[in-house]
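Appendix B, Record 12. Input sequence as logged:
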Amino acid sequence: YTELSGTGRWKDFSTPAAGGRDGWYSNASTSQREQVEVPAGRFAAWKVESWSNRHATDGSSSARLEPVRLHFQVWYAPQVKRYVKSIRKLISASGQVLDEDLFELVEYKLN
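Logged structural output:
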């Protein structure tokens, strides 16, 4: 992970294949720290938000099902040296949410 300090923006970086498709390009930003509560506790975490996009290739008949947008929200807590919460949404060309995941840290141990 890059050390986060304050707000930042990253534009037009290549993204690994998602939803069985490649050709994704992303923009991301981070804002000030915010308090986030998960089962493992309460943390002052950097929120990083990323939008990934790709062009639809399957035609209009598949617009409901073809993934073209991927939205990530990740909260990184320096005190535990990892992210403590993550939300991922995979969105179709028609705007339908195809898949959504929520991960929260349950416990941790610093070495």
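The chain has no helices and six strands.
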